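Hey, quick one: can you model this chain's 3D structure?
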Amino acid sequence: MSFHDSMRVLVFHTVAKHLSFTRAAEELELTQPAVTFQIRQLEEHFNTRLFERQHNRISMTDAGRLFYLHASRILDLYQETEKRLNEVTGLSRGMIRLGATTTPGGYLLPGILCGYRDAYPGVKVRLSLHNTRTVVQKVRDTTVDIGMIEGPVSMPDLEVLPCVEDELVVILPLGHPLVDEESIPLERLLAYPFVSREEGSGTRAVIMAFLEQAGLQLGQLQTVLEVDTAEAAKSAVEHGIGFSLISRLAVRKEDRLGALTIRPIREGALTRTINLLLDAKRIRSKVTDELVQHIQTACHMMLQAPDSEIHAPIPPG
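Sure thing. Here's the predicted structure for all 317 residues.
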């Protein structure tokens, strides 16, 4: 099979996976006309239509569905071959797509990836940030190789690897009426404006579960603003819009600078586990396994010294 044939199989499989030429072009970093051209070449080669196009939507024909099954097997075999050859040659190079939620992606992974880059200079990592719901979907549809999220997920097609425990804390603007409290009772928080994370956020899901255990509902909090990142939540609190509940990882700098008041919840530590997500059915490359091991080791080091920054590289092998 020539390079052009391999490329056409990959393009077809990506279009079929998303049922979208646009999303396939984005994932493969090609122009949409280039994707359309590759599909047209395949259809001309087999003298049949692989996709039906109606009202700006596409679906696979019977021939397309048959070709998709074989294309999946071809790509799996290629991945297995690449993995085995890398194991034989000991090469550590390639591209890894890493999708993470904003807390581990913004405050945990940068230091870890710095160490990984030093240990494996031949590997390029592409990190993208999303909410939990999107990261889970990207792992399932193989748009990313590794996911990293806060909180639990239970799906039979996903492998979940716990990494580190994270605590959510109350952050208050300077001068807030509750700053003199050493720990904040949940009931007292109900009386003040609240800056919430958006629906689909792992942080929001953990807060909802914690409130329900205490006999409260998220709707009882006086939500005045919803934001989609921890940085936006911190900025809103600094400007006095309200209090928020946020990862302790995300406020280490503000804690050192005294820019925000940070307090635990009196009813007990509000914790969640930061997990790695992998497609349980997918064959993983050597470099992917190496990065997973590197992240787990770095997180273990953080547990031993929670206030330290993780930058030290971990030697290969």
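One thing worth noting: The first helix runs from residue 3 to 18.
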